[in-house]
Predict the structure.
Amino acid sequence: MLPKPPEPEEVAKLLNEDPNVESYGFYVVETVTKKDQKITYTIPFLDIRTIQSIIPGVTHVSYQTSIPAAIFTAMIVKNEIKERGVLPPECINTETLMKYLKKVGENGIKITQHIEEIIN
């Protein structure tokens, strides 16, 4: 349902044609735990100019999906992830998950966690 993303050359061309182009966005994930806590994760996109200075031609979506995937892949190759099979991230042990999140953050992808407790 989404339009086809632009090719890397097209992204660079669009940004060069208009030096005032700015682009921002973010993901928001909300969950409710069995302990009646509402947890909200907010993951802002890096602005398009910053992303272009890191990897020319990428978009918000390609950067935010490829970097975490590359980090997970490198961790698997280095045997830093011991669990095997197809698992959701919450099934990976906490120490490994925190190491992964640190590496993601080092690449500019910051995640904010907000916890609310439902009291009634």
User: Anything to note?
Assistant: The chain has one domain: 8-117.
